Amino acid sequence: MSTKYDTHRPTMSRRSFAGLAGLAGTLGWFELPAWAAPQTPPVAAAPASAGEAYWQQVRQQFLMPPGLTIVNAANLCPTSLPVIEAVYRATRDVDADPSMPNRRKLSDAKEQVRRTVAAALRVTPEEIVITRNTSEGNNFVSSGIDLKAGDEVLVSAENHPSLLNAWVEKAKRFGFSVRRVAHPSPHPGHVAIIDAFRSAFTPATRIVAFTHVTASSGDVFPAREICRLARERGVLSVVDGAQSFGILDIDLADMQPDFFTGSAHKWLCGPREVGVLYVNKQIEARLWPSVVSLYAGAVGVSRRLEGLGQRNEAEILGLGEALTLQATIGRTAIEARSRRLAQLLMTELRRIDGVRVWTSPDPAHSAAIVTFQPGALDPSKLATALYERERIACSARSGADRPGLRLSPHFYNSVAEIERTVATIRKYMNSGV
């Protein structure tokens, strides 16, 4: 099926080009291809009063053509050009010379990425494991902690399957129990969530696992307070950051979880099949490796848990580049921008007759995921129409629990795109799909 837009040749910023050129000199990489010459202006730090002109410069760091609106960051973000180019360069280098001496420099570069991840999360490199995604990190924990019959794991009812179903399946094998902490809709407020977890702890509780930001409606959990409750009771805490890593400015030194997981392919706008697992150094010895093979990390917990066999180091370098781009723009600026777009979405959607917004309008209770019920319209048919007819990509939610559409804007979106999305939804609410 033909599309309504033209493809165009990838470009990269001078900042990315300079970074790659520096790596080329250090690592002995080959000459840049002609098409990789810098063609777009560099992205500087977001000014305090950044307007649409600045965010349009940010949009130029992505391959998405004009006319295509992606408001689906909670599922899969576009990878930025600096990341694409870094992965491209490293891949070409390995395939030109896959010898061990040549690949060794990528192992050194991986350790630099580990330091970049640690700095972004305000922890130490010794506490970082580079995984394939959030699911793998979550399963490293549920498979690696010793639990037995009589032990209990508390999980929030609002959890991703990798942090919910994995515990349930492993409980069948090892005999421990899994108990869910209810999470009512709409967001009940942080005090109510904290009280619900406090009441749920028992002397048998060994682990509490919850999602930092829910994928269903974008509810933000009071992670620091829940982790504190667990710590006071000698209970380990697991925080799933799939919907917060790359959108919220996360400070694990302040949150103090025992484990935190995240993926690069969502809000970080990084490569696919790269993620992170944070393991608090104080409890590292309690986590057994789930896979024992070669090519582990060089420091701390990575020496025990990261021996996963041959990895694609080029993608790992892309993780570092994605973090660097966000740091250049400013993580607080990215969070503020994405939250502003989400708030605009909610405000305008509430003005459409028949629309019911499930996401909390309180900025303290939501991030940048907006879920709503489009009246009597079929969510799946509406999502299909939005993409195939209007070039607007989002996700549909079915079932009895808050059905509808999920829109998740990010810093590469514009106010004009949000307005066009709302206007299009209003049109279908009036005319049907």
What key phrases describe this protein's structure?
14 helices, 7-stranded mixed sheet, 2 domains, globular, disordered N terminus, 4-stranded antiparallel sheet, 433 residues, alpha/beta
Radius of gyration, Cα only, in angstroms? 22 Å
Q: What's the average pLDDT?
A: 90
Number of DSSP strand runs? 13
As a percent range, the share of helical residues equals: 40-55%
- Count of helical stretches: 14
Termini Cα gap? 20 Å
Commentary on this structure:
By secondary structure, this protein is α/β, with parallel strands linked by helices. 41% of the residues lie in helices and 13% in strands. It has 2 domains: 110-326, Aspartate Aminotransferase, domain 2; 332-431, Alpha-Beta Complex (Aspartate Aminotransferase, domain 1). It has helices at residues 14-27, 52-59, 81-96, 100-121, 134-144, 161-174, 190-200, 223-232, 252-255, 302-305, 313-329, 331-349, 379-390, 415-431; strands at 69-70, 128-131, 152-156, 177-181, 205-211, 236-240, 259-263, 275-279, 355-357, 370-374, 392-393, 395-397, 404-407. Strands 2-8-7-6-5-3-4 form a 7-stranded mixed sheet, sandwiched between helices. Strands 9-10-13-12 form a 4-stranded antiparallel sheet, covered by helices on one side. A two-stranded parallel ribbon has the order 1-11. It is globular. It starts with 13 loop residues before the first helix and ends with a helix.
Task: Give a nutshell description of this structure.
The chain is α/β, with parallel strands linked by helices and 433 residues long. Helices cover 41% and strands 13% of the residues.
